[in-house]
Each structure stands twice: as C-alpha cells, then as structure tokens.
Amino acid sequence: MNLTGKSVVLAALLLLAAASTNSAELPTQPKATSPRLYVFDCGTLVYNRPEDYNLKREEVKDSNMGVTCYLVVHPKGLLLYDTGLNDRLAGRPLYENIVDGYGQIKFNTLGGQLADIGVTPAKIDYLVLSHYHWDHVGNAGDFAGSTWLVYKGDHDQMFGKEARAYPWFPQYSALEHSKTQLLSGDYDVFGDGTVVVLATPGHTEGHCSLLVRLRNTGPVVLSGDLYHYAEERDLKRLPEEERTKGTVESRLKIEELLRQTKGQLWIGHSMEFFRTARKSPAWYD
Ligand SMILES: [Zn+2]
Q1: Are strands 98-99 and 77-81 parallel, antiparallel or unpaired?
Q2: What per-residue confidence (pLDDT) applies to 3?
Q3: Minimal CB count within 10 Å: which of 86, 95, 214, 282?
C-alpha cells in the first residue's frame, strides 16, 4: 500500500467513525402544529379461534390479529395509546411465546420504533391503555414517568390480588407509582377537543377508546378491543361473555359518534387494518 492508499483508508475510517457517531444520536423529536398520529407495529397474534368472538371460521378473512400501538403528537404534548406485546419477545421463536392459546410474534420493539422518530419514554406526557390485557400493556412499565390516564375499574383490577399473580404483572407493575389521573366519563386531554379519551366499558370494566381529530385525515377512533375483527362490526357479533357487560352500549356510543363526525374506526387487531395502515416513521395528520 502506498501513502495515498493509506490516506484513503484513514479517511474512510474517519468517515466511518463520524457516521457511527452520527448514527448514535437520536433523531429530532417530531413537532406538530396540529395533531399527528403515528401507528406502530407492536406484534402479531397467531390465533385460529374466531368462535371465541362468536364468528365462524369461514366468516373471518384472517383470524390472526395485529397488535397496534399509537403515538399522538399534539402541540401541547405526547400521548401514547397502548404498549403492545413485550419488547423482549422481539426475535424469539413462536413456541416460547404462547399465552392463552395465542402465539405472539414480534419483529420490532416499541422502544426502537419510538427512538426512530426521536422519542424516548421520558418524553411521553400521557399514557393511556385501552385496557389491562397482556397484549396491550407489554411495555407499560417503561412509561411509568408519564401521567397515566385510567378508569378506576381497570386500575383496581390491575393492582388487585389476582392481578399480582399474572405472569405479565411485572410488565406494568411500575405504573403503581406513576402520577395517575383517574377518569370518569370522556376526557378531553389537551382541552381543545382534538384528543379525547372515550369511556367504552365492556371488554373490561375500564376499557377506553381514543378519538383523535386530525386536520387532513379527519376524526379517527382507536377502539382498543371494543372490536377484534372487522367482521364483528359488519355482522354485529360480540363475545358471549360481553353481552351484559357494557360492550353493546359502548359500541352504540362509538357508532353514533362516528356517524355524527363522519369519522373512521380503526380496529387495531384487524389484520387488514394492521397491514394497510401507514406505519411510523410516516404519520397521519
Ligand atoms: Zn387485545
């Protein structure tokens, strides 16, 4: 190698060092003058028992379920709705990750997807969980520094004696010491009507949905597990055990809201929605 060759190698090494320094920096956190909504891939549930939701197999296009988390970037703060499957599942084989007959697949972490857009857990102002089931609270403990907006029914269940024995209790247990705001009824988070937590009890006692009014996309309702499959909505089916628990009334409330606002319903577990939704780092506004 001659001197010039050495210089080229040195220059290349320096460039590499500079590039790796740059790549270690968090991208700039998104700022928005009107609300933005980011959709994250928080895993997939491999599942073939739509009968649990009062649907025949032939009535459901895809019985698997996407697991979706959402970030709202509002000019006055950041709100995370649901935290999906636990990040430690990412890259693990399916047979290790079976809960209640559902296989859990995860390709990417929520933490990594947030970092991709410059957001660390410490920057999330508000945490909202649609409800306390394991496929929604898998990383909730990472957001214990946020203000947790929650209904009493779910809060009491999450820290009751029975829940402390859940295998996934450690995934959210840190929330017990979070700054917690107990909600009753619907709650307008930023006071301008653009981000509203909607009480939709039934699937669990404190189950909630989220209305986000976007400038270009229009109103969107993120409905947690009010529905699992789009076919439940089309064919008007619901799980037998939810018939008398509030789901019927909650669905009527949301359908009326959608009718009045000409809004869209986003069913987070619907594979069709999950596949076609524009994922972060892109966003809806
Ligand atoms: Zn779910």
Answers
A1: unpaired
A2: 45
A3: 95
Ligand 1 centroid to Cα of residue 131, in Å, is 8
- Cα of 17 vs centre of ligand 1, distance in Å, is 44
Distance CA(207)–CA(217), nearest Å, equals 25
Residue appearing with tokens 């090494």: 13
Provide the whole-model pTM.
Answer: 0.91
Burial of 118 by CB count in 10 Å (0-12 exposed, 13-18 middle, 19+ buried)? middle
Tell me the CA–centroid distance for residue 235 and ligand 1, in Å.
Answer: 20
What's the pLDDT at 30? 84
pLDDT tens digit string along 214-241?
Answer: 999 999 999 999 999 999 999 999 999 9
The pLDDT value recorded for residue 26 is 83
From ligand 1's centre to the CA of 205, what distance in Å? 14
Ligand 1 centre and the CA of 164: distance in Å?
20
Amino acid at 257: L
Give the closest residue to 5 by CA, choosing from 21, 20, 13: 13
| Alpha helices (H) in the chain, listed in sequence order | 3-23, 110-116, 152-158, 169-172, 230-234, 247-261, 271-276
- What span, in angstroms and rounded, lies between the C-alpha atoms of 251 and 256? 8
Locate 26 and state its tokens. 């968090």
CA atoms within 13 A on the CB side of 125: 10
Cα 85 to averaged position of ligand 1 atoms, centre (Å): 10
**CATH homologous superfamily for the domain 29-276:** Ribonuclease Z/Hydroxyacylglutathione hydrolase-like (3.60.15.10)
Query: What is the token pair recorded at 110?
Result: 């929520």
Query: Ligand 1 centroid to 7 CA: how many Å?
Result: 57
In angstroms, rounded to a whole number, what is the distance separating the alpha carbons of residues 282 and 265? 19
3 state DSSP class of 272? helix
